[in-house]
Design a protein that fits this description.
Layout: H1 2-27, E1 31-35, E2 41-44, H2 63-81, H3 88-119, E3 130-131, H4 133-151, H5 156-162, H6 164-187, H7 197-215, H8 222-247, H9 255-272, H10 277-306, H11 310-330, E4 333-336, E5 339-342, H12 366-370, H13 379-393, H14 398-418, H15 428-431, H16 438-455, H17 457-467, H18 469-474, H19 479-503, H20 520-530, H21 535-559, H22 564-578, H23 590-613
Antiparallel strand pairs: 1-2, 1-3, 4-5
Helix pairs in contact: 1-2, 1-4, 2-3, 3-4, 5-23, 6-7, 6-22, 7-21, 8-16, 8-19, 8-20, 8-21, 9-10, 9-11, 9-19, 9-20, 10-11, 10-19, 13-14, 16-17, 16-19, 16-21, 20-21, 21-22
Amino acid sequence: MGVLKDHRRLGVLVLLGGGVLLLLWYLAPWAVPHRLFGGEGVLLNPFGHHLPQGGLPPGYSDGWLRLLFYASLAWLLLALLAPWTKAPTRGLYWAGFAGLLLFLLTYLLFQASVAQVNAGAERPLLRRYSLGLGSYATLAFGLYLLLLARVFSPGGLAFLVRRRGLVVPVFSLLLASLLGGVMVAVLKENPGEAASWREAAMLKLDLITYTYQLLYSPLVNPSGFLQSLLLATPLIFTGLSVALGFRGGLFNIGAPGQLILGAIAAMLVGVYLPGPRWLVLPLAILAAALAGGLWGALPGWLKARFGAHEVINTIMLNYIAASLFLFLISANEYKFFGNTLFLPFKYPGYEARSHEIRPEARIPHWTDLVAPGGELSFALPLALLLGLLGYFLVRRSLGHRVLFGLLGVVAGYVLGGLLPGPAVAFGPDLTSVRLNGAFLLALFALLFFHFYVFRTVGGYELRAMGLAPKAAEYGGVLAGRKMVLIMFLAGALAGLAATHYVLGGGIDEYRLKQSLPYSVGFDGIAVALMGQNTPLGVGLAAWLFGILLTGGLQVNLQLGISRELVAVLQALVVLFIAAGGFLPRYFTDPLRAAEVELKEEARKREAEEAKEAR
């Protein structure tokens, strides 16, 4: 009886998904071989095309679309029958993988048609082309079938619950994107003329699809990809800062102030400390971390000593840091009670900015790291490769593995520098991206977070403080000292974000300027929430926000949609994550998650016993 009920539920879910797929196949374009600047284009659909300005591009063949449509209908019919077979999950697995292959075939046929048009031309005739929502719906339904097959397999629900740290953010992102698409449809008019309601729907769906294609275009554009990493770099630092506080049961909302103090310290060392590069640059980076750490430790000490709430203290310290920042670089002369105070920090002129950072204290540009002097260097990739090999191949204690990993990095950097490399020439669109070595520091910060929080005794105590502070204190954890240490480390991570802006020239100049975007400290809260306070999650969430911020510029330029759409998406993601993605409670409540896992394990054992009995 229970098996029959599962078959019915599975059949209903597949039928609902198939109905949505059919509707999108009918209303949405499958391919757009040519697109105008405003978003209108030649929209191809097997039920009838929307062809503005006369018809298809010269030489373009769309015969493949009709054959592909018949193959897609046959695939959909088999997918709808799969839940009623003797092995429904196995049938859904096959149907899901067939859907992925069908999407791949669609992509290859479309690219072949475009290449055929451009083959005989001196310059490409079709430049602005892409697949449409109808084709992406095939891909989405294939993934949907694979998900259903996994969930309805024995232990499938427990599999998802155990990975709820990934499921909740992904589902929240999908909900935010869906709501964002509705907003685009409401706020933006159709880009072309429509002769019927179906053509109007086709134009509107294509507008939404094109918006998201532009929004995620940095994934396939080299300069956009580098720009997304540039924007993700400070978000990684601030996201880790907030996540570390969350792990320890503290809410560090003072990342903006800690970033400002780190920027001031990096400027002081970078401008006024002479010396060789190997000494000045590490000291400037260390100064940024120490200044941010000490500024973060202050509210930690206030909480440990007086019980003052860290949220209020960090917010107030943000204002103090911002005022101190403006005090140092706004003017060089201040009058106090008839006396004049002279400061050496502001550069002459009207703009509030410091003197330029000395060349010895500057973090190298990405082109200098990859190809110093215009010649490709194998030092960096070889250092990363030998470092990873040294860490993972040594089967001893954590300390030995870290030591061998560091030795591998040093050996790889030395050996790679000795290997000759070919000369390379970067285009202006790539050299103009101000990605610098601070991105590598951000990657090391992710590794530090992982090793400290999940691989050390201090990290275990930190997590215990966050989960059950009274129990941790009863177990011997010195709560006051741990609070100060947590806030110090969180502040140090936020302070390191300043190295990207001041030492790496992330704000167009190697200076401390009034335009320092310290508001990324608040964005770190969204990054930490979406990343579920894990290093991998924070890194991916920061990169996602960098992609959206980069793609938002293209959306604004090509479609006239405000870049604030990105801020709306970020806010919606945070809102949905706070609501648990509107998923069942066992995805957000650890106790209920444990109950589900136990029930699923029992169900899996029963299924195995029944299989053996046959």
